[in-house]
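Q: Hi! First time asking for a complex rather than a single chain. Here are the components, and I think there are two in total. Is that enough to go on?
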Amino acid sequence: MDFIGAYSPSHIIFLLKGFSVTLLVAFISITLSFIFGIMIGVLRYTKVPVISHLLAVWVETIRNLPLLLIIFFTFFALPEIGLKLDKMAAAILALVVFESTMLSEIVRSGLNSIEKGQIEAARSSGLNYLQTLWYIILPQALRRMVPPIVSQFISLLKDTSFAVVISLPELMNHAQIINGKNINYVIPIFILVALMYFTVNYLLSLVSRRLENKYI
Amino acid sequence: MLNFSILIDHWDMYIEGFFNTIKASVFAMIASLVAGTIIAIFRIAPFRPLNWLGTMYVEFIRNIPLMLIVFVFFFAPSALGLRINSFLAGTLGLTTYTAAFIAESIRAGIQAVPKGQMEAARSSGLTYVQTMWYIILPQAIKIVIPPLGNQFLNLVKNSSVLGVIAGLDLMYFGDLISSETFVTFDVYIFVAMFYLLLTIPLSLSVSFLERRLAKNR
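A: Yes, that's all I need. Here is the structure of the assembled complex.
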């Protein structure tokens, strides 16, 4: 094991560059997944006839597949039907497809947790269905969803490492590149990479716990 | 239209991968149930240093990616001059990761058993270990079955990481078949179908159990 060689400044910078890609991909993906997750969750909650059934099939299918398979699919299979994406776009698309279904389930159970009396009260005060949803149900539900959404963000941040299979230049990929130079770097590099993931995710989990105490 | 001749021509490979995926998931599930139960007991045992050990394990493992853990099991032994079979490395990685989540589910289950049960058993003269084994765990198991089912479901999906280290699972064979046939779309759709064959019945039974146990309470 060569800790000094492994932790040379150029390696550290290279790993940090990888980590910035990890964080960027995670941030873009969570933002988009949040938007689509809310859309899917609300549409399923409101039980719009055909659409909510189709979405139920979509969510159940995607949720039950490995993310790794979806990443392979967006990068290797979509070009076959004429949709060629670069590594970054393929990784983000796969993460959004997968995580938005996860988030939609969080949104749906958040919406379902709002007591039916709230809807009845709002409707009888003269609000229409959409107004009730927008002003009464969603604001309360969103508050309850904050802690599980932060946990989902932690999962997503970890899941970005699956993109190593399409050699997206994120943290795992950069770690493997350094490891390839010298076998004595492998263990020191893995320790450092683990600490990098751990630090960010642990801080996020502390945030999630604080929010849980605040909102629930 | 899907090209079913790919499925028929490579049926043996799909089936071998399918059974290896099941094998890895079942082995890892059994091992992580054992490890997870021990860690959960560490976390609640009336002995501080054990609590710290349990907490450290759970917090550390839950906050690092599965991919990294599997890579450690696969590449670190060779850095130390040892050799490890990729199926074993993958299964050990899956176990290490899943055990942390299972430990948390079991801990939550144990803590959901009313405190009076422990006190009553201890004052009837049972030791701490006897109380755990005969009184607390049997009651906790009922509470933790749905979350454990969910963990198993995640495990089946996560077992796809074996494909990355040539662990002979469904993902690996999918990769192999697509590089042989130069077809990716259809090959991966069939791989997806095999996964759904496992995960959909699992997820249906988990939600069935959730509803039943909720009714009984």
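A: Chain B touches chain A at residues 59-60, 62-68, 71-72, 75-76, 78-80, 153, 157-161, 163-164, 171, 174-175, 178, 183-185, 187-189, 191-192, 195-196, 199-200, 203 (CB under 8 Å). Let me know if you'd like any chain examined more closely.
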